[in-house]
Amino acid sequence: MAQGPVIELESESRKLSVHEVMRKNFFIYILWVFGTSNALVWVLIVGMVVAEHNLLIGKSIAPGDRIINSNVVMTLLGATTVQLGAALIAITNFLFKAERQS
Question: What is the CA radius of gyration of the chain?
Fold first, then answer.
């Protein structure tokens, strides 16, 4: 199996091929993207909950007109499950794919 050019990383005791370094960097980038996007979604949700709480206290909306209801919570749970599954499949296929026979 051809590894391609080999480079030495200071932080690791073994030599890694350029392909291995690219995979590692891609993996770190993907984790950062998913972590950042999920954090921003949670910031948005917390902001909505605080705004809704203030509207309820100020009697600007009725309790039946809530923004964050069971549909929103179920949608977030479903979207998070799908996102996690898609991310795991994509990362696993990229990192551990078998060499294709020509």
Answer: 22
Query: Which residue from 86, 13, 79, 93 is spatially nearest to 41, judged by alpha carbons?
Result: 79
Q: What is the tally of structural domains in the chain?
A: 1
Residue 2 lies in a domain: no
Residue with tokens 């990362």: 91
Task: Identify whether 33 is part of a domain.
Answer: yes
**pTM greater than the 0.85 cutoff:** no
Q: What is the chain's length? A: 102
Least confident of 5-9, 45-49, 60-64, 89-93: 5-9
DSSP conformation class of 64: G
| Burial zone of 23 (CB within 10 Å; 0-12 exposed, 13-18 middle, 19+ buried) | middle
Quickly list H helices, the chain: 18-57, 70-95
57 inside domain = yes
Report the pLDDT averaged over residues 43-71.
Answer: 87
